[in-house]
Structures are given as C-alpha cells and as structure tokens.
Amino acid sequence: MRNRRRAAGTLALGVVAALAFMPAVPDRRSTPEAVPDAVSTPLADAPGGSVTVLGDGSTSDTGPQPAQPPVARLKPGEVPPQFVVFSFDAPTEDDNHLFSHARTAARANGAEVTFFLRGIDLLPATKRWQYQPPQHEAGTASVPFPTDAQVRATLQQLGRAWLDGDEIADGFIGQFCGPKGARDWSTADWQSEIGQGYSMVNFWKTGTGFTDLPPLPFDYQTELAGGRAPCLEGRPNLLPAEKDAGWRYDAGSPGDVQRWPTQTDGIWDFPLQRIPDASGAHEVLSTDQTPQTYRNAFDRVYHGSRAPLVIDTDLDPRHAPRLQSAEATMKDLCHRDGVRCVSFRQLADWLDAQDPAVLNRLRALAPTTAPNWTAVVGP
User: Fold this and answer.
1) How far apart are alpha carbons 183 and 142 in whole angstroms?
2) What is the pLDDT of residue 101?
3) Which positions ≥6 away from 123 have C-beta within 8 Å?
4) Does 71 map to a domain?
5) What is the mean pLDDT of residues 341-360?
6) Residue 46 lies in a domain
7) Residue 115 is part of which domain span?
8) What was the pLDDT predicted at 125?
9) Structural domain contains residue 292
10) What is the model's pTM?
C-alpha cells in the first residue's frame, strides 16, 4: 500500500522566493486529501488524462503510477521470482545525458528501476543559499550544485521516469560524509535533511523560479518510500528519522551477503551486497561492477535461494562505463525466465504481501542453497 500524503502545511515555503527551505520533517499522521489550492487541469502525459496540481504547482496527482506489476502471495510450492533491483545514484541530467540514458535503457529492457534523487539535483547554483545543511554553512555541499539548464533537464527526465514506472527515491542533499557529515549527524540533523529534501521537490517552482514548467506528474509526498544515505554512513541515527517520515525501506547499509531481506523496526533493509568478483575468488560490493561480476552474483542465487540481487550505479559522468555495465546486465538478465527487474518500492510491495513464516524460511537459506520449494513455500 502506498504511503498517504502528508500535510502540505508542514512543508510550506511561503510565496516569497527569498524564503529558505523549511527543515521540518513532514508529518504523515495528518493526511488531508488535497491542499487548498489544488486545481484540476489537463495534462497530455497523465495516465488518466488530467492532473490535480498540488501546492505551488511543482507536483501533481495524476492517479496510480503506470507500469506497476501485480502483487500476489506465493502459492504453496511456488518458486519465488528472481528479483533484480537496479538503482541509480545522482540522477542529474547534464550534457552527458546519463540520467536519460539509464531511463531509456530500463524501459527498453522491461525494467522498473529506482533513481535516488538528491534535493540538490533540483537546486540551481544561483539559489544554493536556500540549502541549510546540518553542521555546515548555508549554501554548501560536497558535490557541485547544478546549473539552471541542468535542473530544467532533470525535471523533464523525472516526470518521464515516473511515467515509465520507475521509482523516485531519496538520495539526500549535500552528500556530506565523515566528520560533521552523515557519520556524525544526529536524528534531528537527519530530520532536517529529509524535510529540506521534501521541500526542494514539492516546491521546486518556488525554489528555482521556473514557473514556466509543468508540474511533475506525481505527488512526491505519496510516492517517496525510502532512501540511501551518502557513503552508507549514519544509519543508527537515520533509521528513527526515516521511520518518523513514514518510509518503508532503507537502502543504505553496506556489505551484507545475498540473502532475503529483513526488517528493522518495521523498515525493510535493502543493503548493497557482497557478491563474487569476476574471478569468483573474492567478494566486492554490488555497485559499479563488471557484467561478469553481476552475472556471477546472479547465477548463485538464481540457481540457489532466489534472494534478490541489488545492482547500484552512480551516474557520475567521470565513470560512464559503469552505466554501460548496468545496461549490458539489464539486457542479459531482465529477459530470463522467472526474472523480475523491479524497483526497491516494488520489492517492498511484494515482500509485504508474503506469508511471514515463508519469508523466515527463505531468510534461512544460504545464497547457493537450492531447496525443496514445496517445503520452503508451504502452507
């Protein structure tokens, strides 16, 4: 079940562009059906042909997201699908067009993927002062702020990605790591970071001044289900902030073996995984690897426990071959029998629908264990 939309008032920026983004965390316990200034207008690309514009016109409600797979509980003795989750960090659309390339590659191969949008992706350098990072000076970040043209292009790709069925998740904002960064942030610091991230998406027209652009075709407050912290740091203090925001999963823990996911305080844990390298002699993190490395990781669970495989790619233009590796892996894996290439949110949907006793038996399997499925997926 999708998250209900939080109260728009807790994120209000005001009508003056000079106001900074609020660091408050959205409150999911207050869930009005529409903000006071919502209006219905036609939208050519909307699934239902119309859109309810929300807030300052930055986002909208166009109905259920297209291209979402049905969710069903496993039948007794049924072999679980082999889930492969492709995720992409830092989806800024610049002159290298890596965001749009990743999006079109996913669509061509029948995959729905997760894009970890950073709030900074929608905050132009000319407006950088609006960001108030925890433990750092206002208007600073550890990654470059985009140009006006890049923000406009990124907004276009975000709308198309959602219409393709892809998930827009939270990659946080300033990408601060180490001292005074994610490693050192308190839960209150994370709440500030999450709240500002919501505001940068929900009110990008106010923040950027780009009032000539159409709204995004989705309600970010409803759609956002999880995130991944920079450098995979700070999880102990981050989890309470994510739970307070009503998130359903966290993808920011490093280095777990390929096993069926568990939950921490009701939040699904989707870590980057330790997978066999191309030689098979060592294990590496499941991010930015070669197609052969991903194939090794796939083979051991596809013919074994059927635990989900997580593949992450950083859309950094300095490392374009990484996207080529992910695309080649999509072409190789997503068309195989029993394979479903899904987003993290879609994986959480499927897990939520399963018998908890069956999930417990799946978690007990080693990656290479090919069990008697009638015993594991029983009544």
Assistant:
1) 14
2) 97
3) 130, 131, 145, 146, 151, 173, 200, 207, 208
4) no
5) 98
6) no
7) 82-370
8) 97
9) yes
10) 0.90
Q: Which residue has the higher pLDDT, 243 or 20?
A: 243
Distance between CA atoms of 61 and 216, rounded to whole angstroms? 9
81-128, pLDDT tens digit by residue?
999 999 999 999 999 999 999 999 999 999 999 999 999 999 999 999
The CATH number that applies at residue 131 is: 3.20.20.370
Q: Is residue 32 part of a domain?
A: no
User: Residue 156, Cα to own-chain centre: how many angstroms?
Assistant: 17
Q: Tell me the pLDDT tens digit for each residue of 260-278.
A: 999 999 999 999 999 988 7
Distance (Å) of CA 249 to CA 103, 237, 241, 375: 22, 15, 12, 29
- What pLDDT is recorded for position 49? 66
Domain count of the fold of the chain: 1
Residue 43 above 70 pLDDT? no
Average pLDDT over residues 318-341: 94
Reported as half-sphere exposure (CB side, CA atoms, 13 A), residue 90 has a value of 22
| C-beta separation of 117 from 201 below 8 A | yes
Burial 173-203 (b: 16+ CB within 10 A, else e): bbbbbeeebbbbbebebbbbbbbbbbbbbbb
Residues 332-364 as b/e (b if ≥16 CB within 10 A, e otherwise) read ebbeeeebbbbbbbbbbbbbeebeeebbebbee
C-alpha distances (whole Å) from 368 to each of 292, 296, 298, 306, 308 are 17, 11, 10, 9, 13
**Residue pointed to by tokens 């399997």:** 365
Alpha-carbon span 309 to 330, nearest angstrom:
12
What the block records as the tokens of 68 is 């979402």
Give the strand order in the sheet containing 59-61. 39-42, 50-54, 59-61
Q: Which residues, 6 or more positions from 179, have their beta carbon under 8 angstroms from its beta carbon? A: none
Q: What is the pLDDT of residue 25?
A: 39
